[in-house]
Amino acid sequence: MLFRDAFKTATRSLTHSKMRSALTMLGIVIGIASVIILMSVGQSAQDLILGQVQSIGSNLVIITPGAPNNGKFSSPASAQGIIITSLQPRDIDAIERESSVTAAAGLVSGQAEVIYGSNNKTVSYQGVTANMFSVRNLSVSKGQTFSKSDVDSAAHVVVIGPELATTLFGPYLNPIDKTIRVKNVSFRVVGVLSKGGVGAFGVDQGNVVIMPITVAQKQLLGITHLNVILAQGNPNYDVNFVKSRITFVLRQDHGITDPNKDDFTIQTQADVLAILGSITSILTIFLAAIASISLVVGGIGIMNIMLVAVTERTREIGLRKAVGATNGDILQQFLIESVLLTLIGGAVGIAIGAGVVTLIYFVLITFFTIGWVFAFPISAVILGLAVSGVAGIAFGIYPARKAGKKNPIDALRYE
């Protein structure tokens, strides 16, 4: 039998039992759609996270307390619940004296309830030096940022995120010069950040309170050390050279002669992007692997339905073999039916997945301000079609072989 004739026969067989064909494809449709959705969402999340890191400056060097872990960078000590006091305010001055550094800024952070009148919200607060705004490319849409004199005098002034401003003051009341309370300490709002989104270290810039570092250290946290130092490299120098110079400066400042005893960790943006990229890629693959389980379930469903079809069509198989059809012809017909079911199911699954991904994108950009990035990787489509075809062959080969091996006389006698 020619392939064209076998294809037509298989198509007629599938269209003859439309409901059974649709239900048979359902498992593959759900499986492929799940893989498409998770791969697309994972890629979008990866693009969003990496984009946020890139937005803080390509020549940024991040210094955190605690030693590197065997040459690979560990997470910040604060994220591990460990308090390390190796970074001190004097380190900022030492770093800024280095000619390859344009500016350096210190940061401490915590969480607290912010109150204005009857409105309140628990958010992250950051105590920073005045040049942090320029180092991190932060700008305000209302008011102004605080100055070095505000930091030196421990002035009770803050810059807040745009979403927090709406939560506390509503859409119409101007937040500037209003007084809010953070941990029962009063602050005057002097500025509102121009945009929200996820900022450095995973902080929601839309719901953040930024205050002079001196106030945060003395009155809110009761500490003298720093959680992080951000250094902006001179654009005339390679960022890796800047990193090496800062390492040299801090070792001198801390009296470290053995590089294996560093009490600080230095990361460039490239280091952070590499770590985050590998983590998000692994998570995306893991999610896709979980979704692929439904493909196996769908494939087993197709195999079961094809076995039932072989049993139901035993007399048809006997008749075809009686008039000259070979085992290969019968195997070819049933295998084509199986592959057609999975390929059509895969195409439908890709279409549904694309629709859901598009819907998620429009919902997130319309009702939320997280800067979601639309991503629909072509690799997901290729993977979906490839898996569909392989599943059709893998799960269709056994029923097709069983049909091809039937004895024509026994098949014609089958009731």
Can you give me a brief rundown of this structure?
With 415 residues, the chain is of the alpha+beta class. It has helices spanning 3-16, 18-55, 89-96, 132-135, 148-152, 162-169, 213-221, 239-254, 269-312, 314-322, 327-367, 378-404, 408-413, and strands at 60-65, 101-116, 119-128, 140-143, 157-160, 179-182, 185-193, 208-212, 228-233, 264-268.
Overall description:
It is built from 13 helices and 10 strands. With 415 residues, the protein is an alpha+beta fold. It has 2 domains: 3-53 and 274-413, no CATH class; 101-233, no CATH class. Strands 2-3-8-5-7-6 form a 6-stranded mixed beta barrel. Strand 6 and strand 7 (185-193) form a beta hairpin. The protein is elongated, with a radius of gyration of 32 Å.
Give a quick set of tags describing it.
single chain, 415 residues, alpha+beta, 2 domains, six-stranded mixed beta barrel, 13 helices, 10 strands, 55% helix
Which structural category fits the helices and strands? alpha+beta
Q: Supply the number of helical segments.
A: 13
Residue ranges: pLDDT <50 for 5 or more in a row? 71-76
The arrangement of helices and strands along the chain is HHEHEEHEHEHEEEHEHEHHHHH
Helix content: 55-70%
Mean pLDDT: 81
| Count of the separate structural domains | 2
Shape descriptor reads elongated
Determine the strand fraction and express it as a percent band: 15-25%
What characterizes the major β-sheet? 6 strands, mixed, barrel
Number of strands: 10
Major β-sheet strand ordering: 2-3-8-5-7-6
How large, in whole angstroms, is the Cα Rg? Answer: 32 Å
Distance between the termini: 27 Å
